[in-house]
UniProtKB/TrEMBL annotation:
Family: Belongs to the FGGY kinase family.
Protein name (record): FGGY family carbohydrate kinase
PROSITE patterns per the UniProt record, alphabetical: FGGY_KINASES_2
Species of the source: Streptomyces endophyticus
Taxonomy, superkingdom: Bacteria
Length: 476
């Protein structure tokens, strides 16, 4: 029984949902942008004063939104570093997002530990510019005076939970957020302070990792505050994904994230071993190219109607696109590991050289590339029976018609909702009532492969044949 709230502090705004703790029904909602100044040249800032998150939170919660709420859960952007001094004050602004400044630091960390494989074995991920451990190395190299003052580290959701609790002596985090730092191992469920020292140059205090259903504490007013987690983990929890499910994100790049019962140690670094917000694991495989392949095809064909027109055009073709195959490696590729390659258009014949066949090949190439990522997980014993398809491109008919047969799974396209905030609210209900709340899953369209499964396999085989001919051994 009761009312709970979930707040999601994303890079640009705060959303709050107030839910019935038993059913998950959304009772009311709040929203406020973050008062952030854009950097010169546009884009998102790399440094942010965390107070901006609190100001946005206060504005989103205005008008009595939290009246009657008994527990609050916090979701926030991942890949953040909030460096604190010995008194708990920020040493410098928080470092957020995909910080390109840290690219050299990532390579330095790989060299210092010995190899990509050594990092994958240690923490289930390889340093990249966005990872907190890489940001720490950049800080040590570029701002040594600030680095020396750092006495404790937090992430965005940790810091917000700590502020809501009145900045107690105890600082906490959850296993989901910890697993995205680059200095916590999902396999051993333990911090790696030696890797923090390797990056920053000295030891610091790290938050206590508490269980997914535990409370971080109570506010001075008596509200329960749950453990909190990263946006990815909160969104998965809000969607209601479970064992046998995968989440495929269709952005410019792509990712396949599945629910699994154990952490997958992958010495090649293809799989990033994240933990979820329930005690399970979320192994993730990334691709460098997804919707960017579609947008490139739109430009190549000169379509004024964008992705929607491309989808309509693709539906005038047939599965297999008359033998036309697009390997969508336009920005190199992570899966397979071909960072310096380019895309390939194969199967050009007089009868296949039509706009509708190129449009179809673009959709099939994108989806087959994501299926390659899915096969990396399936090859490690991850069961995938149902796929949640996220992103604006998931609404396109050409995606919905082809994906079930190519993925060989039921495809679910959820209705738009604040799933990260809903997941945070669900975690709050767990901390409040002491048991995992069985909320109804996301409202969605559901698509089945049906009789098209053999057709999908034939399209996949056509794609694989071209991939293996152009890039032999890429998946060896």
């Amino acid at each position: 029984m009761g009312i709970v709230a979930g707040l999601d502090s994303s890079p640009e705004f705060t959303r709050i949902v107030v839910c019935d703790a038993d059913t998950g029904a959304v009772l009311r909602q709040g929203y406020a942008p973050h008062p952030l100044e854009a950097p010169e040249g546009g884009g998102r800032p790399s440094d942010v004063d965390p107070q901006a998150w609190l100001l946005s939170l206060g504005e989103a919660a205005g008008g009595g939104l939290l009246e009657g709420v008994q527990a609050i859960g916090v979701s926030a952007q991942q890949n953040t570093v909030v460096p604190l001094d010995a008194q708990g004050n920020t040493v410098r602004p928080a470092m957020v997002g995909g910080d390109k400044r840290a690219q050299v630091a990532a390579a330095d960390l790989v060299d210092r530990l010995g190899s990509r494989e050594a990092w994958a074995e240690a923490v289930g991920s390889v340093p990249q510019a966005a990872l907190p451990v890489t940001k720490l190395r950049w800080l040590a190299r570029s701002e040594p005076e600030n680095a020396e003052q750092v006495a404790a580290l937090m992430q965005a959701h940790d810091w917000l939970v700590w502020q809501l609790l009145g900045r107690p002596a105890r600082r906490t985090t959850d296993r989901g957020g910890a697993s995205s730092t680059g200095y916590w191992s999902a396999a051993s469920a333990a911090w790696r302070p030696d890797l923090v020292e390797l990056a920053l140059g000295h030891q610091v205090a790290l938050p206590e990792v508490i269980g997914p259903g535990e409370a971080a504490g109570r506010t001075p007013e008596g509200l329960v505050i749950s453990a909190g987690t990263g946006e990815t983990m909160a969104a998965a929890f809000g969607l209601g994904v479970q064992s046998g499910d995968a989440v495929v994100s269709l952005g410019a790049s792509g990712s396949v994230m599945a629910v699994h019962h154990e952490a997958l140690v992958d010495s090649s670094g293809s799989i990033t071993a994240l933990a979820d917000a329930t005690g399970m694991h979320l192994p993730v495989v990334h691709t460098s190219n997804a919707v960017r392949a579609l947008r490139g095809t739109v430009e190549m064909l000169g379509l004024d109607g964008g992705l929607e027109e491309l989808s309509e055009l693709a539906m005038k073709s047939t599965p297999g696109a008359h033998g036309l195959v697009l390997l969508p490696y336009l920005e190199g590729e992570k899966t397979p590991n071909l960072p310096h390659t380019a895309g390939t258009l194969s199967g050009l014949r007089r009868e296949s050289m039509k706009p509708e066949h190129l449009a179809r090949a673009a959709f099939e190439g994108m989806l087959c590339g994501l299926t390659d990522a899915m096969d990396v997980l399936r090859g490690r014993g991850v069961e995938i029976r149902r796929v949640f398809l996220l992103g604006a491109a998931a609404e396109l008919q050409a995606v919905q018609s082809a994906a079930p047969a190519l993925f060989e799974a039921q495809v679910v396209v959820p209705q738009p909702a604040d799933y990260a905030a809903i997941g945070a609210a669900r975690q709050a209900a767990w901390a409040l009532n002491g048991q995992l709340p069985q909320w109804q899953g996301a409202a969605a369209q559901v698509f089945e492969a049906g009789d098209e499964l053999p057709v999908g396999r034939a399209v996949r085989q056509q794609y694989r044949a071209v991939r293996d001919q152009i890039h032999p051994g890429a998946f060896s």
